Amino acid sequence: MRRNLEAKEELRRGREAENQGNHGRARVCARRAVGAVLAEYHRSNKEATQSTDAVSLLKNFLVDSSLPDEVAEAGKRLVERVRPDFSSASLKPLEDAESIIKYVKQRFGPIE
Fold first, then answer.
1. pLDDT tens per residue, range 12-70
2. Sorting pLDDT into bands at 50, 70 and 90, what band is 81?
3. CA–CA gap between residue 87 and residue 101 (Å, rounded)
4. Least enclosed by CB within 10 Å: which of 64, 69, 82, 88?
5. Three-state secondary structure readout of the chain
6. Structural domains in the chain?
7. CA 51, CA 86: separation in Å to the nearest integer?
C-alpha cells in the first residue's frame, strides 16, 4: 500500500515538474512511479527480485512478451537514455507511466 501512495506522489511531483518546464524531472518521477508499482507487485506476490531501482524493475517487466504493444512501447520510451542533445524518446513520460501502471493493476488486480 505504501508503494501505491509513493507512485501517486511521484506522479503528482512529475506533473508539477512538467508544469514548471522541468521535463527531465518529470521523466524521473514517471520512472519512479512505475518502479514503485512494480516493486509493490513483486512484494505482494512474494516474488523475489534482485532489482530494486525503477529502471531495472521496468527493464525486467519489459521482458514479458505478452505485454500489449502500447504498454511495451511506453516502457521502452521510459528506459531509453536521454540523447546527447538532452531530448528523450518519451515526450509524455507521465502518460507513459500511467498507461503502464493502469495495465499492471488491470492485469494483476489491486496491489496492496
1. 999 999 999 999 999 999 999 999 999 888 777 666 666 678 999 999 999 999 999 99
2. confident
3. 24
4. 69
5. CHHHHHHHHHHHHHHHHHHCCCHHHHHHHHHHHHHHHHHHHHHHCCCCCCCCCHHHHHHHHCCCCCCCHHHHHHHHHHHCCCCCCCCCCCCCHHHHHHHHHHHHHHHHCCCC
6. 2-108 (1.20.120.330)
7. 26
79: left (phi over 0), alpha (psi -120 to 50) or beta: alpha
User: What was the pLDDT predicted at 48?
Assistant: 60
Tell me the pTM. Answer: 0.87
Mean pLDDT of 68-88: 88
